[in-house]
Amino acid sequence: MSDAVTLSLAEPPTQALIADCIAADRFAGLDAKAIAELPVVHGGRPGTLGEFFKVRGGHSSVVRIEGDLPQVEAIGAGMAGGELTIDGSVGRDLGLAMSGGRIDARSHAGDNVGGARPGAARGMTGGEIIVRGNVGDEAGARMRRGLVVVTGDAGRGTGQGMIAGTVVLLGKAGPGAGRFLKRGSIVALAPIDRPGTFRYACTYRPPHVGLLLRYLRGRAGAQIADRYMAGRYERYCGDLAELGKGEILQWAGE
Amino acid sequence: MKINGVAIADTFAEAFTMRVARIVITGRTVKWAREAATKLTGFATSVIGCKCEAGIERELAAADTPDGRPGISVLFFTMDKQSLPEQLIVRLGQTVLTCPTTACFDGLPDVPDRLAIGKALRVFGDGFQASKVIGGKRYWRLPVMEGEFLVEETFGMLKGVGGGNFLILADDADAALAAAEAAVDAMTSLPGVILPFPGGVVRSGSKVGSKRYKSMVATTNDPFDPTLRAITESQLPDGVNSVLEIVLDGTDASSIEAAMRAGIPAACLPGVNAITAANFGGKLGPHHFHLRKILA
Q1: What is the span of the domain harbouring residue A24?
Q2: Which of A17, A204, B35, B104 lies at a CB distance of 3.0 to 4.6 Å from A13, suitable for a disulfide?
Q3: Residue ranges of chain A with per-residue pLDDT less than 70
Q4: Average pLDDT of the segment spanning B207-235
């Protein structure tokens, strides 16, 4: 048993590498050899994790991944617990359908962060993902519970079809954020395009936002200015084409 | 034993086990947090008549509260585990939920015994309420006319200690009051302790039951009433013309001991004849606070 499992990128993939075997809770029961033998798919062909990563440590649910991984997909898919830190950028499907634990990506991430598997009704159902950079399209799409934090900009369709949960965006968001949202919250600290099916409710100081941002600053070390903690937010209810019990909270000043 | 010439009786205060919750109320300013806390802890001096005992534990700086706003910590006691949630749901719903700008958090987060207080209060939202999980804890957002009321879903419950006490026996009422005020000042804001009576002081200490009225569970403590010295089995020394009592409830025995250690010496002022304590021969409760042992 070690304090942490470390995966160091040894052989950068030349094509998309689907590494949905990487999940912090799964590593808790495996030694380094067993982790290296976990299956991956590289360019549509089967392989093992050890062909691409040097594995150190084992039997730990604290996992660190070293290297820049823009072509590595589905890291943390189905993760149910533990802590996973990624030093570089990652590809699409980070934290796909995860249900617990924390993922901390120290750089950019691709599409569908915390999203759903193809054809599935629900994306992530619990846990926390923080991306300290930009994300692609549909971050938090169809999420049922949990928290996705993006410190940079987000692509199109952020939080699309959310059932519940929270997405916090420190940067800008592309069009279509919150479309088909049933419940759940999108907290936007920068300007955000809202679908026409959201309706303005009021401008106020939502007490849970201060609590949440304070938690993120403390627990995740996120750089969030005081003005956002106690600031005023415009509340837009929506998506009124759906259940309409969700919201976009847009920062409106101190 | 004497402190500043004041005799410390060789006796003990007898206390009993209670159930306790710690409520952290925050507000836009400390004024509003205190307004809510004051209402919440109103009419909560003794379980004899109020069914609960409560008081302000201390003021919290913004840096010490979950949401970074100034706050007040309240300790809330009942005799059994069933009545604690009942009292809290009713009182929080009428005093903190109603108070502008406030939010309400659990002050015993590591305690495994949980009370679903916020979960019960959420129905005030009439279906418009929403929950958020932040850092593994669930909070309820209740829409109100002002904006939103935020309350934690569950609150921790501990076994606490109620009924710690000491009596200030003084030459006259002014000296007793001055000593009591000094003791309260010394004990106020100590962690884990509240003084549930008005200003922290009781003038009407009671004995268990009644000599005359069967329905009364508590009546005047006639052995310590100076006006009855001539007609009852008085326990008052000569020269004592007024007695005040300090009652303490705490999250544990050590908190009460620490408060008594601070409060009793502070009460030993000119005009005070002796410090003693109320007990019932060990029949009332399992917690015995021996004055001389605490002060040694």
Answers
A1: 1-63
A2: A17
A3: 1
A4: 95
Other beta carbons less than 10 A from residue B93's beta carbon: 16
Nearest to B150 among A166, A183, A207 (CB): A207
Backbone conformation region of residue A13, classed left if phi is above 0, alpha if psi is from -120 to 50, else beta: beta
Give pLDDT tens digits for B159-211: 999 999 999 999 999 999 999 999 999 999 899 999 999 999 999 999 989 99
> Inter-chain contact B150–A219, Cβ cutoff 8 Å?
no
B135 with A145: Cβ contact below 8 A: no
CA distance B133 to A226: 21
Is A99 part of the contact surface with chain B (CB cutoff 8 Å)?
Answer: no
The radius of gyration of chain B's CA atoms, rounded to the nearest angstrom, is 21
The partner residue sitting opposite B147, judged by closest CB among A145, A205, A230, is: A205
The answer to whether residue A208 neighbours chain B at the CB level (below 8 Å) is yes
Question: Does one domain contain both A18 and A89?
Answer: no
Instruction: Choose one of A21, A41, A63: the last residue of a domain.
Output: A63
Contacts of A102 in chain B (CB under 8 A): none
Query: Which domains occur in chain B, in start order?
Result: 2-14+161-295 (3.30.70.520), 18-158 (3.30.70.520)
Q: Is A81 on the interface with B (CB under 8 A)?
A: no
What pLDDT does A1 receive?
Answer: 67
For B236, half-sphere exposure in the C-beta direction (CA atoms, 13 angstrom radius) is 27
Residues 6 or more apart in contact with residue B77 via CB below 8 angstroms: B18, B19, B20, B47, B52, B53, B54, B84, B160, B162, B194, B196, B249
Tens-place pLDDT, residues B68-105: 999 999 999 999 999 999 999 999 999 999 999 999 99
Left (φ > 0), alpha (ψ -120 to 50) or beta: where does B268 sit? beta
- Confidence (pLDDT) at B283: 79
Residue B243 forms beta bridges with which residues? B169
Q: Mean pLDDT, chain B, as a whole number?
A: 96
Domain shared by A225 and A104, yes or no: yes
- The pTM (predicted TM-score) of the whole model is 0.94
